[in-house]
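Record passed on here:
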Amino acid sequence: MAIRGVSMATSQLQKRIEYSHSIGLSTMAGRGFYYPVDTAIDGDGKLYTVSRSLDGDVRGLRVTVYDLDSEYFGTFGEHGTGDGQFIWPTAIVRDADGNTYVADEYTNRIVIFDSEWKPRSTWGDAGTAPGELDGPSGLAFDVQGDLLVVDHQNHRVQRFTKDGVYISGFGTKGAGDGEFELPWGITVDDNGDILVADWGNDRIQRFSSDGAFLAKYGKPGRCDGELHRPAAVTVDGEGYLYIADWGNERVQIFGPDGAFVQGLKGEATDSKWAEDFLRINVEEAEARSKADMEKDIDFFVDDPHEVSSHIEKYFWAPTSVKLDDQGRLYVTESNRHRLQIYKRA
């Protein structure tokens, strides 16, 4: 499709992954999501997606549990400041015992649920001192099983035990090696290296397991290999980096050396949940069947956001990227209330 005034080519030097299917539906309760921000993949094949809702709207906040085939298992969590509650969730992870951890940047807490999805505990104190938080965002477990928390507004990463006891931290505000500007997502590779999406500096940084700077990837821009406000990163077993290039409304894959490999704009199709909805809502289904879903549009500004907001199949606010043990990539895109899933090519 040609969109006049804006280049929408999906670039690739090597095709590592290809589109499989989508999962999602915009709902404020039950099966579906409402502005999802992150997804955790469990060892039993279940997926856990946390929805943030709109700021100021108490509806829709929850964790939705389902699987790769779109089977729905239930939800847990809700709006509030008590145990099992959150207001502005940003990230979700699962530990080896089946506990779920959700970061809440509004209350500066980590909210924990047990293996039966019941509230277990919360921890976290607001502040700037070591062990205190100001806008926790990305979460990841290190190779020792301790929890790494991206401390967004404090421009650092902190390490805690699973029960919230402070261990160590690294990073400070700035643009130099090992410094951050509003970091967001985080992951740990098979070697124990820590990779952080340095959102405000338009790059990914790599650190050793003890927080020593090792390398950086990307630079500001919109061309292949360039980044604009990256939100998340994950790494496969061969060392390839998969980056949610949030500000450019795309996902990019870099090689182990940081070189550009493949770019994705999104190829979403109707999910099974959406198909079920349309079978019941026949008038909406009929109108949708007659609509031009890939209409040529004259855009007056060269802005990826304008294109993504008008073309449904494209990513719109990709906030999270995760890989499963089969090499499938799960892209959580907030503004379209869905995941796009890619498989190995």
